[in-house]
């Protein structure tokens, strides 16, 4: 996989770009995914732009998580998964036979719905990804850990207890630690699967602030069930229904004047 | 209103006001039954220990005397002794003593006298023959026996002079156990990591039951196999002198330890949450790195528990060791024969006279073994507790 050669675009929530228009970082075309015989994704085509927060919304079971996992090939771990079509990142097909999945996952980080810090110290949690990449110098690790924790808005709360176990943190802190762990390795893309669904409103708003902060440096794809959250933090939104991409575009447009009836029904809460 | 109802009908069972066994009598019964069952197992363990310790008590208290030559009191002097002295001399319990009439006592004294007079001449001036070999000093320290040219640790319970040095047995047990664990633990834990983390489901379905089936093989059979085949093959491969030695015994022993350690370690590794594995893989760890750096450390308490239980199994295993090597040689070399504590008990208990010093020493060995296993399990439990606490971030 080569570095992306795209020019960095200035994107703000007020000035969002249209998904599918112009060059983009992630290009999914005609992607279908089968779990055994059942088809979870049907001919999904979608472009995701660099340094933009893209939200996936849709009713439960419509395939949001499945599509998200396609982007770092976490679906490979599930037995009996078959994929048709292509997904390209930076112009390279990530399902091409020569792709090193491990390299791919280092460039496409992931934050899970349920926070899953390792049962290690806070420091080791954040440093683990870097150690995997062969960083051994203590100084380098120390700075990276500090930077990532600051980036994840967690530093002030944990700076005095870096060596104590991460499992002693609160749920919200654990989720921010997982975000710190993901950004420590400086991926190009961060995938987030309902990162705030298990958090209280205060912790949620901290994570949301954090996402708005992170979009300056990372391309973020986030799955959410919370419509307000989607409008607050995303620039672009894709709506899925029964494994199909129904509609995608700037978040404002999707929420205020969707083209499809089903999208309108969903975002206004008439079904879901 | 509700207040009144509450007070008035406290015993009538309104909305579960009934407490304890009145509300759910069957559950209460079942609970008490299970409690009794678990209590009785604890009681059993306790009773066994009490029994073993009681039989061994005279040794612990230094009340036995195994010296070959003891002072003789002629039967004619029976009336000069106080009854208490006579009882001690005849080595009888109070009950036995009271039941016996004078005649029998005199007979017993005669027997004693005769036994002493039958001692061969060459032993009469031997200091060994006057030694009480059940004293702690004789059991723990080396002694230069007659016709030996240096002090040695010797276990030779049968013979005119009973040599009861228990050090060779402990060394033997330790050697065999350590060799067994050195073989079993890496293999079992390695297999557990492979089966729980790396193997494809197909492979797992075949290999896991096969390894666990190993524990179903009777240890006599394993011992038989080790005695006939392994010993010969290993002697050819390593070229050592003694065919049946601690090394062969340890390796054979590992066959019975591996399934135990494997299945507990595998459980521990499998129960590490999948979310840890996913987190590591999503960071770009390989499956191997995930298993080794994330899953194994997360499962250390369980894996450690497996090792502790494996130790208990190894030190308690009797049959395999009994069949593969049995001479009690005092040597730290793993290529010399060795006799473990359990083997000694199993092999000699049948020929030891009930109530005699040999019998009591065997029980003492059993009590010590019991204590060692108990203490090692307790320590293991402590370490596991610490590990868990540290991991969960409690201080
Ligand atoms: N591991 C799996 N094996 C088989 N089927 C699966 C698997 N994971 C998901 N599916 C199926 O694929 C479909 C899409 O699931 P997915 O998890 O992507 O939905 P989702 O949009 O993320 O739902 P939610 O909002 O509830 O998380 C569902 O019908 C689900 O049952
Ligand atoms: Mg999902």
Give a nutshell description of this structure:
The complex is a heterodimer of chains A (272) and B (395). Chain A is of the alpha/beta class and 272 residues long.
- Sheet/helix structural class of chain A: alpha/beta
Q: What order do the strands of the largest sheet of chain B run in, or round the barrel if closed? A: 1-2
| Residue-averaged pLDDT of chain A | 88
User: Low-confidence stretches of chain A at least 5 residues in length (pLDDT < 50)?
Assistant: 1-22
Q: Encode the helix/strand succession of chain A as letters.
A: EEEHEEHEHHHHEHEHEEHH
Assembly type = heterodimer
Number of strands of chain A: 10
User: Mean of residue pLDDT of chain B?
Assistant: 87
Which percent range fits the helix content of chain A? Answer: 25-40%
What number of structural domains do the residues of chain B give? Answer: 3
Total count of helical runs of at least 4 residues of chain A: 10
Number of helices of chain B: 18
The percent range for strand residues of chain A is 15-25%
Question: Which regions of chain B are unreliable across 5 or more consecutive residues at pLDDT < 50?
Answer: 1-10
Bound molecules: adenosine-5'-triphosphate, magnesium ion
Task: Describe, in plain words, how this protein is organized in 3D.
The complex is a heterodimer of chains A (272) and B (395). Chain A has 272 residues and is of the alpha/beta class. Chain A has helices spanning 64-71, 101-107, 122-132, 138-151, 155-158, 171-184, 201-214, 227-233, 251-256, 261-267; strands at residues 26-35, 38-48, 53-57, 81-89, 92-93, 108-111, 189-193, 219-223, 236-241, 244-250. Chain A has a domain at 24-119 and 189-267: Rossmann fold. In chain A, strands 6-7-8-3-9-10 form a 6-stranded mixed beta sheet, sandwiched between helices. In chain A, strands 2-1-4-5 form a 4-stranded antiparallel beta sheet, covered by helices on one side. In chain A, α3 crosses α4 (138-151), α3 (122-132) runs parallel beside α6 (171-184) and α4 crosses α6 (171-184). The longest helix of chain A is centred in the middle third of the chain and has 14 residues, at 138-151. The termini of chain A are far apart. Residues 1-22 of chain A have low confidence and may be disordered. Chain B is mainly alpha-helical. Chain B has 3 domains: 2-60; 70-118, no CATH class; 167-391, MetI-like (MetI-like fold, Orthogonal Bundle). Helix content of chain B is 67%, strand content 1%. Chain B has 18 helices and 2 strands. Chain B has helices at 2-8, 25-60, 83-90, 94-99, 102-117, 121-124, 127-130, 136-140, 167-198, 201-213, 219-238, 246-270, 274-282, 287-298, 300-316, 319-324, 341-348, 357-392; strands spanning 155-156, 163-164. In chain B, strands 1-2 form a two-stranded antiparallel sheet. Classes of the chains: A alpha/beta (272), B mainly alpha (395). Chains A and B meet through α2, α3 and α6 of A and α13, α14 and α18 of B. The complex binds adenosine-5'-triphosphate and magnesium ion. Magnesium ion (MG) is lined by residues 64-65, 193, 223 of chain A.
């Amino acid at each position: 996989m080569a570095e992306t050669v795209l020019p960095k675009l200035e994107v703000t929530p007020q000035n969002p770009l249209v998904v599918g228009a112009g060059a983009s970082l992630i290009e999914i075309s005609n992607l279908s995914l089968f779990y055994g015989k059942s088809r979870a994704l049907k001919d999904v085509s979608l472009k995701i732009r660099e340094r933009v927060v893209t939200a996936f919304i849709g009713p439960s079971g419509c395939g949001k998580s499945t599509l998200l996992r396609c982007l770092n090939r976490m679906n490979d771990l599930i037995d009996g998964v078959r994929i048709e079509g292509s997904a390209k990142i930076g112009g390279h097909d990530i399902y091409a036979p020569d792709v090193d999945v491990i390299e791919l996952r280092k460039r496409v980080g992931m934050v899970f719905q349920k926070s899953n810090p390792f049962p290690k110290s806070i420091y080791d949690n954040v440093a683990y990804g870097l150690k995997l990449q062969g960083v051994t110098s203590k100084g380098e690790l120390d700075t990276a850990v500090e930077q990532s924790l600051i980036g994840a808005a967690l530093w002030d709360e944990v700076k005095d207890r870096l060596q104590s176990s991460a499992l002693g943190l609160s749920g919200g802190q654990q989720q921010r630690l997982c975000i710190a762990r993901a950004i420590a390795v400086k991926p190009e893309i961060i995938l987030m699967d309902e990162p705030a669904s298990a958090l209280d409103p205060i912790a949620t708003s901290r994570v949301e602030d954090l996402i708005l902060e992170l979009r300056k440096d990372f391309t973020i794809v986030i799955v959410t069930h919370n419509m307000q959250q989607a409008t607050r933090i995303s620039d672009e939104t894709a709506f899925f229904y029964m494994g199909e991409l129904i509609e995608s575009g700037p978040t404002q447009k999707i929420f205020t004047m969707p083209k499809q009836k089903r999208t309108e029904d969903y975002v206004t809460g008439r079904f879901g | 209103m509700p207040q009144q109802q509450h007070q008035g009908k406290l015993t009538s069972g309104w909305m579960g006001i009934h407490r304890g066994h009145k509300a759910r009598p069957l559950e209460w019964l079942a609970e008490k039954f299970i409690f009794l069952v678990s209590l009785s197992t604890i009681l059993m363990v306790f009773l066994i220990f009490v029994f073993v310790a009681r039989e061994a008590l005279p040794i612990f208290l230094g009340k036995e005397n195994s010296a070959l030559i003891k002072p003789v009191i002629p039967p004619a002097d029976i009336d000069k002794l106080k009854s208490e002295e006579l009882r001690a001399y005849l080595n009888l319990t109070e009950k036995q003593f009271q039941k016996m009439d004078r005649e029998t006592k005199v007979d017993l004294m005669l027997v004693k006298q005769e036994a002493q007079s039958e001692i061969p001449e060459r032993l009469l001036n031997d200091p060994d023959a006057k030694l009480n070999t059940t004293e702690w000093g004789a059991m723990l320290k080396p002694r230069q026996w007659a016709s030996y040219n240096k002090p040695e640790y010797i276990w030779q319970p049968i013979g005119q002079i009973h040599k009861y040095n228990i050090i060779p047995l402990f060394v033997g047990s330790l050697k065999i156990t350590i060799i067994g664990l050195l073989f079993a633990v890496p293999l079992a834990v390695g297999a557990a990591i492979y089966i729980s983390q790396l193997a494809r489901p197909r492979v797992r379905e075949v290999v896991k039951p096969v390894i666990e089936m190993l524990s179903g093989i009777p240890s006599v059979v394993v011992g038989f196999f080790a005695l006939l085949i392994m010993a010969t093959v290993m002697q050819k491969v390593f070229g050592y002198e003694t065919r049946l030695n601690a090394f062969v015994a340890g390796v054979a022993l590992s066959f019975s330890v591996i399934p135990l350690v494997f299945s507990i370690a595998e459980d521990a590794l499998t129960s590490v949450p999948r979310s840890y594995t996913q987190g590591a893989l999503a960071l770009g760890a390989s499956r191997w790195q995930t298993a080794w750096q994330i899953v194994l450390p997360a499962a250390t308490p369980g894996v450690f528990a497996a090792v502790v239980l494996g130790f208990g199994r190894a030190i308690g295993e009797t049959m395999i060791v009994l069949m593969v090597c049995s001479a009690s040689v005092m040597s730290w070399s793993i290529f010399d024969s060795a006799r473990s504590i359990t083997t000694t008990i199993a092999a000699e208990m049948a020929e030891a006279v009930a109530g005699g010093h040999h019998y009591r020493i065997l029980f003492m060995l059993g009590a010590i073994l019991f204590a060692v296993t108990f203490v090692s399990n307790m320590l293991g439990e402590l370490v596991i507790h610490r590990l868990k606490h540290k991991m969960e971030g409690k201080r």
